[in-house]
Amino acid sequence: MELYSPSTIKEIRDRHNFKLSKSLGQNFITDRNVLEQIIEGADIGPEDLVIEIGPGIGVLTAEAAERAARVVAVEIDEKLIPILKETLGGFDNVRILNRDILKTDLKEIIREEAEGGTFTGDVRIIGNLPYYITTPIIMKLLEEAVPAASITIMMQKEVADRIRSGPGTKSYGAISVGVQYYCDVNKVASVPRDVFIPQPKVDSTVLNLVPLKEKRIQAADEKVFFSCVKAAFAQRRKTLLNSLSSAGGMEKDTVRRILENAGIDPGRRAETLTMEEFGRLADEVVNEKAERDI
Ligand code: SAM
Predict the structure, then answer these.
(1) pTM, 2 dp
(2) Residues 52, 151: contact at Cβ < 8 Å?
(3) In 3D, which of 276, 280, 277, 256 has the Cα closest to residue 267?
(4) Strand pairing partners for 127?
(5) Distance 73 CA to ligand 1 centre (A)
(6) Residue 246 has pLDDT above 90, yes or no
(7) Using CB atoms within 10 A of its CB, is residue 129 exposed (0-12), middle (13-18) or buried (19+)?
């Protein structure tokens, strides 16, 4: 019997007296096509290390283990660990870690695996993410510069739409600029809500994020760049002059001068700015600070 079939999931759940946790975002995949779409999207090679976020009962893990040299699956729910040991018992290339992904040092794990000689290829990150922490997980992977060749993850459709959006659209926001600063973003699949147990209230999208070898722009100070993006979008209906002076904590005259030096009309809104314009804005903030400190 296949691991993803609803009857297998129910049988495992009942036999282990396991209760699916809503608060941990447990919505398990029950569709072979979706599994294949994630696995194909991840482009796993036989020498690769796959890190899976939130394996659940191991449906994706088993598919990855068939193709990769090594799979490390990070699952927070200790009640799933004996289940994973059972469902993945036939594989000798799977390591199960009972940890919170947000508190896990993935670079350290990759180093350990490389030193142990368990893989010689690329690192591929996969997961059907728990919806409640999708954005923190993605930003952790990108900000910590986890050395992955690809990140192939399923998330709520609306979050994926925001990540993929460009300037001039309603869904363009801090997360779009944040992710696109680090990655190329490709859509792999649309996934309807009825292929999960239990069925969530939202549809999903699988995205493939490919970290850029060379950044699209080189901000003089990345911290300032991200603060500017956050401040600009904090009150997205306001003009940049107003949003940056209230959320950014700067005098209006200073903000006006910074925007004008960056060649950006102070009457524009954050959602119209390109990545390059955010870069110019942030660099002018850095210049302004440097001049003040002189
Ligand atoms: N991969 C399985 C599947 O697709 O059927 C399960 C996906 S389910 C949407 C999300 C999984 O992430 C659950 O197994 C849940 O327990 C786990 N999870 C939730 N929060 C986590 C965290 N902070 N760290 C690691 N795993 C987490």
Answers:
(1) 0.94
(2) no
(3) 256
(4) 53, 153
(5) 10
(6) no
(7) buried
CA of 149 to the centre of ligand 1 (A): 22
DSSP-derived secondary structure for 255-271: HHHHHHHTT--TTS-GG
Residues 6+ apart with CB under 8 A from 8: 1, 2
36 lines ligand 1 (CB under 6 A): no
**Strand positions, DSSP E, the chain:** 28-29, 49-53, 70-75, 94-98, 123-128, 150-156, 183-191, 196-197, 204-211
Cβ–ligand 1 contact at 130 (below 6 Å): yes
At residue 253, the 3 state secondary structure works out as: helix
Calculate the alpha carbon distances from 83 to 1, 62, 122 in Å: 16, 13, 28
Residue 248 has pLDDT above 70, yes or no: no
Q: What are phi and psi of 126, to 5 degrees?
A: -135, 165
Q: Which atom of ligand 1 is nearest to the CA of 74?
A: 25
Q: Which atom of ligand 1 is nearest to the CA of 127?
A: 1
133-188 pLDDT tens trace: 999 999 999 999 999 999 999 999 999 999 999 999 999 999 999 999 999 999 99
How many A from CA of 24 to the centre of ligand 1?
7
54 lines ligand 1 (CB under 6 A): yes
Pocket test for ligand 1, best of 2, 3, 20, 26 (most atoms within 8 A of CB): 26
Strands in 94-98's sheet, in edge-to-edge order, are: 94-98, 70-75, 49-53, 123-128, 150-156, 204-211, 183-191
Whole-number percent of the chain with pLDDT over 70: 99
